[in-house]
Protein: Ras-related protein raba1f-like
Organism: Anaeramoeba flamelloides
Amino acid sequence: MSTSSEYDYLIKIVLIGDSGVGKTNLLTRFTRNEFNIESKSTIGVEFATKSMKMKDKHLKIQIWDTAGQERYRAITSAYYRGATGALLVYDITKYDTFKNLEAWFSELQENTEDDPLIMLVGNKFDLQNKRTVEIDEGKTFSKENNLLFIETSALDSTNVEMAFHNVIEKIFNKMNSKKTMQNTTQEQIVKNGMSGQVILVEPEEIEKKSKGCC
């Protein structure tokens, strides 16, 4: 079992979207470079991990694959907690999966405390001859909701690595920048610690002590 000493940052990414859009195959393609054409619907929640290195820092990536069926919504909502990123996935050949993005996006916002980095993913690019969702529609939705956007194919690997890597890199940069600022603040506290004790004494009190009583 991994311990926190084995990595510098833990990044949790959730995959959300309707059942059958290819979330599980995106996960397995990225983590194990595998694709199962007969993959079944996820029951509840599954997750996989992957280790990466960025700027001499060790990252542990947890990718949570949430079930898309309505009956599992109550179970999976708890797993949004602590997510630092999300892939909001739809099937470019099924317009209903695109129409349902609004509900998924709202659910994500309701169940996450911090602002997770979100990428909109139009999956099954290999079937673009059967496309029902135009690329401009995906771009428009992403711009309106301030999301990253990409189209992928878990089947032939198109843009899968790029999608995850972009999300992970942006999350890492944000976390690393925040940690650097915290370290700088702590260093200032240590440096100014002794003088800080003197600053707490009001000038009037120092003057009274030096003159003595009466």
Residues 22 and 106 are 20 Å apart (CA to CA). Residues 184-210 have pLDDT under 50 and may be disordered.
